[in-house]
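Give me structure tokens for this 418-residue protein.
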Amino acid sequence: MTQRRRNRHRKRRVGRRAFLIGLGGSVSAALTYYLLRSIPAGNNAEPAPSPQAAPNPALPSGEWRAVWVSYLEFAEMDFSSEAAFRADAAALMDNCLSLGLNTVIAQVRPFGDALYKSQLFPWSHLCTGVQGQDPGFDPLDILLQEAHGRGLSVEAWLNPYRLRSSAAMPPNLAENNLANTHPEWVCAVGDGLYLNPAEPAAADYVVQGVAELLQNYAVDGIHFDDYFYPTTDPAFDAADYAASGSTLTQDDWRRENVNALMELCHAAARRYGVRFGAAPAGDPEQNYTLQYSDAARWLRQGTVDYLMPQLYWGQEYIKNGDASHSFAQLATAWAALPRAAGVKLYAGLGAYRVGAGDGSDAGSEWFSGHALADQLALLARLGVQGAGLYRYGSLFANSDAPALAESEAEAIKGVWQG
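Here you go.
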């Protein structure tokens, strides 16, 4: 059984490189024109937030219970053959189901590459060890088959800007990696390589990538994490900022670049009837000032269908007398933010802290065996509508603290399965 999306979802391609460039290099202008084209004729009002995605029987009902499956998990899976990969995928989905999860957030484009067949991005090095080399089967298609066959939904986790995080990750870039085919779109930060958020052609390419994925695969959502601007250095895009002629400050101009991309990707997801969500950093101020992602605005204006801030500290967290990053305070702050109708708020929980701690000056909750279950109970009291666990391997392949991980998993089952 293939997991390709049905032809009834096939639409014209979302965005055009030449179209955006022709607008004079302004992502905001491209966004405005694009959205206006989507409004029915005769409606001259300001574009309203998109309606909720069409109901999808593959989406979970009730409380959202998710886990991130990152490139680190994929690096441990067996890609030597389709049968070997399917066996690993089946075991992964069985573990997710046993925990009471209903959603798997799979990182299928971690470094400007793909764990699926794409005309826009090279095969991920995770498949064969060499970026651009075809593994001979389609990992995402198998993940979808194994998940949907068990009643689990799958959201495609994409890193929109990142092409390389270090000189070793990935070790080599394929000839058709964007760093090689469009170096004019790319900026370097140390050994890392990133698409320039101010480059309209690069933004359009990201949107085309979302549309291609949704056209070809029956994923249940598109998911971005917190990797937006990779630096606060004004020199990173000083030339682009000067050329833009913007009257905004450089910081606000950067936020508008990110906002524009989010709007376009949201519109692309809506054309295929799936949800679009993001997992920003847990500290709202860090999002705003360090990564130029105005997550509070996305909640308020309906730029996303859900937001899942990464609240990766304990309830007892305190550092130098400051408890502002404690799970309780951050969860309460996010829950108090205004949300557009239909926008969901979830919370990302730091399962990777189990047995490792969070650097707090007080408390040892991450060694209790029930820290995550306690956090889930608090979220329920706050009315938060779901949670995601970062990450799968921290509970099911925790070689540093296997007993604690097992205890945490059992405690989570007690909350989610009664």
